[in-house]
């Protein structure tokens, strides 16, 4: 993705060939800043404090976190310590565990002196694979959007509603739910995006709107509770959201508030699509409500908000009365029955085990 005419990924190897650079997403949209990750503590903080976020990018950052952590010690014990430290940073997104499992298995199979070089090689592969996967998701989702436009006889605008940020900032590049929108826009299909603000961290207002603006995609930021009203009045042609973990049965876990959008879409016969890369599928669980751990973050994310003043200063202010406690559930689970279809790198399928296994038959063989 381009920022001020320069091509960026969200994570890349620095020129020294050892440290890793990322975009500090906590500073957006008011400041574009990059941060260097030099050791395990840097990588863990970047994930935990959401300098990086989005399931695919969390996985890529964890992979590179392993690399920088093995600079002086690539022993079995060190790999185990690094694994546990990074795994504990964010509990909900399954890509974190997937990337760490992949790195650990590959490295432990090698002699100690070969491990760090192999770690960097595999981390780079994970990033490249994510870009390819997200581009393919964009192609399949673009075809869905094209179908919506054809159903309108190519008249008017296709209005899409999204929640949170599932664009290139949530991945290494392209994004998941936003990739189809970019591809449709680039193909000349007139799209307009309703961007949920996505409280409490406002990833929609801060990140998705920033991305769309730089790509030239028409969009409007709305408060989280407007979506149902828009659907009631025929102003949403489809919803497209991302997911941090999808069960083998098709339940999807995404940013808090996604479930309510799915309910509104179902009540108003609006298609509700979920875009996901295959590493986001957790084949070990079926029931998302029962088995997906829901991260609870610090209450200050609810009670305080950061923005830019009229004087141009970035400031954090308190919203709630002194003494009022706040709860901060970061994700919710949308049952598969409310999902119209899952958009993956291999195509679109029903939100069900049969649907997923039809696209990923090798998983059916492994689970048989």
Automatic annotation (TrEMBL):
It catalyses: 5-deoxy-alpha-D-ribose 1-phosphate = 5-deoxy-D-ribulose 1-phosphate; 5-(methylsulfanyl)-alpha-D-ribose 1-phosphate = 5-(methylsulfanyl)-D-ribulose 1-phosphate. GO terms for biological process: L-methionine salvage from methylthioadenosine. Belongs to the EIF-2B alpha/beta/delta subunits family. MtnA subfamily. It comes from the Bacteria. Its EC number is 5.3.1.23. The record marks 164 as: Transition state stabilizer. Pfam families: IF-2B. Signal peptide: none annotated. Catalyzes the interconversion of methylthioribose-1-phosphate (MTR-1-P) into methylthioribulose-1-phosphate (MTRu-1-P). Also catalyzes the interconversion of 5-deoxyribose 1-phosphate and 5-deoxyribulose 1-phosphate. Part of a bifunctional DHAP-shunt salvage pathway for SAM by-products. The keyword Isomerase applies. This is Methylthioribose-1-phosphate isomerase. It is an enzyme of class 5 (isomerase). Keywords: Amino-acid biosynthesis, Isomerase, Methionine biosynthesis. One of its GO terms (molecular function) is S-methyl-5-thioribose-1-phosphate isomerase activity. The keyword GTP-binding does not apply. Pathway: Amino-acid biosynthesis; L-methionine biosynthesis via salvage pathway; L-methionine from S-methyl-5-thio-alpha-D-ribose 1-phosphate: step 1/6. The active site is at 244 (proton donor). Substrate binds at residues 53-55, 90, 203, 254-255.
